[in-house]
Write a structure and sequence with these properties.
heterotrimer; A: 286 residues; 2 strands; B: 309 residues; mainly alpha; ABC transporter involved in vitamin B12 uptake, BtuC; 74% helix
């Protein structure tokens, strides 16, 4: 029973984090048709920045976290202006640029930090005891923060003017342009959100996953899986996919070794996609 | 036409004589790896010609490598037998996987291949001591001993042979059929081309050479790890092709050579080589959208302009 | 009877695109298949050639049941088609567009192809000759080295026919071969179609321009996926239901 509850909490924690990062990634993909290979790298760098604030400047954990998110978010518009706008919607070129950025940042981190793993100290420590059940407070709090953020985002995308503009651009670029929507401004805001989300995840997951120069690859993989499984263009699909992958990652390790879990997850994923290539809730690509 | 083959022959002769002038085994090693990667990148492109993006190509190199290495190490087979065995396994898996994957159109195929690549890496990890798990497989019997130079000639020969075979495929009716399928599977289908067969055939050929490269690498290096065959490695092959120029047969060859050899020129700053690679990538993106192959043509045109009245 | 279609039905979701459709085509005929947009004409073609599988009904060609056959098998049996939206091989020249389609006749085996044997080289030479012949017949020979994408629309449509002829078909399905053409191009296309029939081909023609239909021996009219009339061109022109189906659509003679 304890194991089960622990796994459930893990699942919620992982799902919310995966969805957070994947959401930014999906936003960029649907709005700018950009496969943001460097997204994982932003996550990784955020973790390191947060660690820097914590250890070198000795700031309070929450302050360090908020600062990281702010700084990384501000990086968003620069990305959009210089890296993505020149090649707007030219898929191959943006892919190459993304890979180049990824390589540059990763190499810089390797040069600065070497290949070892670090770990962020956890934000909250301690456990909650609820009758016979013990739950890690950290995981729970992280999930609550993530969940709250996701809620805010969903409301933002669906109710706010900018959110609706984003949806318009994602669905029909020409129509959006004709309506007078400033596509570049919308893209820039999407970049801010994406970077911000990656930063949040970086700060919160840093304790759980650890920090390494190549951590970004792992996270990028998760983003890709979530977007493809959920279906391109579907936010609810993303959420559903996040829950499924989170569940797999939380429950399978109870029965199988780490790599067998990953292998099985991949196998399941491939089977689903073979039967339904557009993803769980995605729309059919032209 | 004749002139082209003369140039090729000249290059081959130069390459064959090169080891006489090189004393450093490290340089030979880099050239060996270049030959292998050229075959990997060219076979990657062969599949791309048929309209599919095999983002799982690295996995097939890995399958070839591990099948051959494990057969040699645990079953005591000689590398001369286990390498063809590994190649055959990679080709067979390619066909088995290629068949259901061929039902998917372009983007979906790419995604599923990518996940297949990741999955295979994890499968290898989960095989514990048989595959060396996370730390890699060591003690693989070598093909030609421990000196690097014999491998140079072996790999040069196999590289040339492979390129010839792939070139022939592309420039024969088989290649035309592949390119037709890539441009419009609907038309191809309606003129009697069994497009599913041809696409799986392309995958089979590509995976054959991928497996061969992997197996050769295993018995050359003596040690293999999954990092060499991860989705990042596949991405690297994609980069070699795109930067060299996906439209031309020479593209992967040039792309691989430049991206592997140029960083080696600045060997002392080896750790900075990804910067150089990134720089080349950015340069190509901005100035050479058709890839490095288009560079001579572009330069000739620029020079022609200067001489204009 | 070259082609027989009985009870053909195809649903997309809850909508019937084709419902209980019957048609027969005799050797050497030019049969017109007309109807307003969305009547199901292209769907019938897709069902015949195997791009779509019917939910019920049978299609028989030369006595053989081809209902479940896939497009490449249907082509091998001798049915070729053009497409409404003229897809092309954009990276091939006009000549390459046609030579690429000579997949079935003459057929070189994989080994012959790979080892560049004499048989293969002879086949390839013949293919090139035959392709040039087809281009000549269609008046496209002067564009042979031009990239197909650069051709004006009317010529692209003729190129579609050239590709279909490479299959050496017995039955040719032409899907709106004259759409987007001006009158000069249309009469050129019609004379080519007549030449094809004189050469032994049987042709089924989808059109929704009534004026082009004159070339047909017989006409089948469709609306909402079902056959509403059949007869000679004159009979169809005077048929009340057909006239009604077209009210508000293309003009009626």
């Amino acid at each position: 029973m304890q194991l089960f509850i622990g796994a459930v909490v893990n699942m919620l924690f992982l799902s919310s984090m995966y969805i957070l990062v994947a959401l930014g990634f999906a936003l960029l993909f649907s709005i700018m048709e950009l496969l943001h290979v460097a997204h994982g790298v932003i996550y990784m760098v955020s973790g390191y920045i947060c660690s820097f604030f914590l250890t070198k400047l000795g700031l309070n954990q929450w302050l360090a976290f908020l600062l990281t998110v702010l700084i990384v978010s501000c990086f968003g518009p620069f990305l959009e202006r210089f890296c993505f706008r020149p090649f707007f919607r030219d898929f191959d070129k943006m892919l190459l640029v993304g890979v180049a950025i990824s390589a540059i940042v990763q190499t810089t981190v390797v040069l600065a930090k070497g290949y070892q793993f670090e770990a962020l100290p956890p934000f909250v420590t301690g456990i909650i005891k609820w009758g016979p059940i013990t739950v890690s407070l950290e995981r729970l709090v992280t999930f609550l923060i993530g969940g709250a953020l996701l809620l805010v985002l969903v409301l933002f995308i669906n109710k706010s003017k900018i959110g609706l503009q984003m949806q318009a651009v994602a669905q029909d670029l020409e129509g959006a342009l004709l309506q007078g929507i400033d596509v570049h401004r919308v893209s820039a805001i999407a970049c801010v959100i994406a970077c911000g989300l990656a930063a949040v995840a970086g700060g919160l997951m840093g304790a759980y996953l650890g920090l390494g120069a190549f951590m970004g690859d792992y996270v990028f993989t998760k983003c890709l899986i979530l977007v493809v499984l959920g279906g391109i263009g579907s936010m609810s699909g993303l959420f559903l996919a996040g829950l499924i992958i989170g569940a797999l990652d939380a429950f399978l390790p109870i029965f199988l070794s780490g790599s067998a879990t990953e292998a099985l997850s991949m196998g399941i994923l491939i089977c689903i996609l073979l039967l339904r290539p557009r993803g769980l809730l995605g729309r059919e690509l032209a | 036409m004749k002139k082209r083959w003369l140039i090729v022959a000249a290059v081959v002769i130069v390459l064959a004589l090169l080891p006489l002038f090189i004393s450093s085994p490290y340089v030979i090693h880099i050239l060996n790896l270049t030959f292998l990667y050229i075959v990997a990148a060219t076979s990657f492109r062969t599949i791309v010609i048929s309209g599919q993006f095999p983002l799982g190509h690295g996995a097939f190199m890995g399958i070839g490598a591990y099948a051959s290495a494990m057969a040699a190490k645990w079953l005591g087979l000689s590398p001369w037998i286990s390498i063809p065995f590994g190649t055959a396994v990679a080709c067979a898996v390619g066909i088995v996987i290629g068949l259901p994957f061929a039902r998917l159109r372009a983007v979906y195929y790419a995604m599923v291949s990518l996940f297949f690549n990741m999955g295979i890496v994890q499968v290898i990890h989960s095989l514990g001591r048989w595959s060396g798990g996370y730390s890699g497989l060591t003690g693989i019997p070598t093909l030609l001993g421990f000196s690097k130079t014999p491998y140079y000639f072996c790999f040069l020969f196999l590289c040339l042979l492979s390129i010839l075979v792939l070139y022939r495929f592309e420039h024969s009716r088989i290649g035309i059929t592949w390119k037709a399928i890539a441009q419009s599977y609907l038309i191809a289908w309606s003129v009697g081309i069994n497009e599913r067969f041809y696409r799986v055939f392309a995958v089979a050929i590509g995976c054959f050479f991928a497996g061969l490269v992997g197996a050769l690498y295993a018995h050359y290096n003596g040690v293999i790890g999954t990092a060499t065959f991860s989705f990042m490695a596949t991405f690297m092959l994609l980069m070699f092709c795109v930067i060299g120029g996906m439209r031309s047969f020479l593209g992967p060859i040039i792309g691989t050579s430049v991206l592997v050899l140029v960083p080696e020129i600045f060997r002392s700053l080896k750790q900075f080589s990804p910067y150089l690679a990134a720089g080349i990538m950015i340069f190509v993106v901005f100035f050479l959208p058709q890839g490095l192959v288009s560079l001579p043509g572009l330069m000739l045109r620029k020079m022609g302009k200067r001489h204009a009245p | 009877m070259l082609l027989e279609i009985k009870g053909l039905t195809k649903y997309f979701g809850g909508l019937s695109a084709v419902k209980d459709f019957h048609m027969s085509v005799r050797q050497g005929e030019i049969v017109g298949l007309i109807g307003p947009n969305g009547a199901g004409k292209t769907t019938v073609f897709n069902l015949i050639t195997g791009i779509l599988q019917p939910d019920s009904g049978t299609i028989t060609f030369e006595g053989k049941d081809i209902t479940a056959k896939r497009p490449h098998e249907v082509a091998a049996l001798g049915i070729a088609r053009t497409f409404q939206l003229t897809p092309l091989f954009p990276f091939f020249t006009v000549l390459e567009n046609v030579t690429a389609c000579f997949h079935l006749h003459p057929r070189s085996g994989l080994l012959d192809t790979f080892f560049n044997t004499k048989k293969y080289r002879l086949n390839e030479a013949r293919i090139r000759e035959d392709a040039l012949g087809i281009l000549r017949m269609l008046g496209l020979e002067r564009f042979k080295d031009e990239f197909a994408v650069n051709l004006p629309h009317g010529f692209q449509k003729l190129l579609g026919m050239a590709r279909a002829m490479a299959v050496r078909p017995k039955l040719m399905l032409l899907d709106e071969p004259t759409s987007g053409m001006n009158w000069e191009e249309i009469s050129n296309a019609l004379s080519i179609i007549r030449k094809m029939r004189d050469g032994g081909l049987t042709i089924v023609l989808v059109e929704h321009n009534m004026e082009v239909i004159d070339i047909c021996d017989r006409v089948v009219a469709m609306n909402f996926g079902q056959k509403i009339a059949e007869g000679t061109v004159q009979e169809i022109r005077e048929n009340k239901e057909v006239v009604e189906a077209y009210l508000g659509g293309a003009h009626v003679a």
